Amino acid sequence: MAQITLDNLAHSYLADPASEDDWALKELNHTWEDGAAYALLGASGCGKSTLLNIISGLLMPSRGRILFGEQDVTFAPTAERNIAQVFQFPVVYDTMTVRDNLAFPLRNRGHDEAYVAERVGEIARMIGMEEVLNRKARGLTADAKQKISLGRGMVRKDVNALLFDEPLTVIDPHMKWELRTQLKQLHHDFGHTMIYVTHDQTEALTFADKVVVMHDGRVVQIGTPEELFERPEHTFVGYFIGSPGMNLIPARVEGNRAYIDGAELALAHGYGAVSGRVALGVRPEYARLSATEGLPVKVRRVEDVGRHKIVRAEFFGSEINVIAGEGDEIGADMTRVAFDPAHVNVYADDWRVSPEEAA
């Protein structure tokens, strides 16, 4: 296992990048803790796989260094990094049995057959493939082959890191939950450093100790699921995490007051005079409809999703969402919306403003 340090790391697929837009991975300076489970989360094309491939050695960075512990591995080949990587689509040896596929990484490192048999048995139970250990991989379904890939990645206990690049894409939904649970258990049992790339917020939030949110080639926040939900450091995090995502409302902020199209809203903290492109960020969970309190709002429609209702509304020209309880009545007189002041975030040019920094 290893602490992973990204030191002034950046990458461009162009030979001579001339502007910031030419960098697929913008400068990163982060240290990831030894033995922690991280998820790299973001939309397609944000740089997740580029970063993972640099960590694994499949891609040499244009700039900066990557260290495993104290060792600089920036230009070390993958074989020397002692990592295991599982890709989006299954990579298996079709002519081998399931047993031999799982055993291959151990035999390749000279482990005795008694240990190989014991470890293969453990992993086969974990991925639910005990009954097919003696079958050839050829002819198995795509999700069965991907389970073999996952098992082969997990079979070694001595790796510096386990890297997963959207590994559950071809797995059926029921099995996804089961395998995520098993990966968490593996992490609990053996303490590997794990990095899991996904565009699925549910996968990220249920798997990781900390989620690394990427946007446009940049890490915009590293935090626990609670931190990402309660205090998104960038508007993209607020939008991407949550269903529906955070409401963004253009406003003017002065001290502990916000002004929205002339209407005044009290804030829980003072912010001084905030400049730039200013917006309030409010989760739908912290907004409520009222007949008497708050600011005027126009309800457009109500969507009942079973466990709660999503109210789609218009608020001073901005579309906002409000979460209401499944049993709540949405009356025609509910033409106002109130926000919980303690859960209103302030943003300037997409970045969260801290009250202490803005004074």
TrEMBL record:
Listed GO CC annotations: ATP-binding cassette (ABC) transporter complex, substrate-binding subunit-containing
Source taxon at top rank: Bacteria
Family annotation (Gene3D superfamilies): 2.40.50.100, Nucleic acid-binding proteins, P-loop containing nucleotide triphosphate hydrolases
UniProt-recorded Gene Ontology molecular function terms: ABC-type ferric iron transporter activity; ATP binding; ATP hydrolysis activity
This protein's UniProt keywords: ATP-binding, Cell membrane, Membrane, Nucleotide-binding, Transport
CDD domains (UniProt xref): ABC_Carb_Solutes_like (cd03259)
One of the Pfam families matching this protein, by short name: OB_MalK
KW Ion transport (keyword) present: no
Residue span, ABC transporter domain: 4-241
Family that this chain belongs to: Belongs to the ABC transporter superfamily.
UniProt name for this protein: Carbohydrate ABC transporter ATP-binding protein, CUT1 family
Naturally occurring in which organism (per UniProt): Vannielia litorea
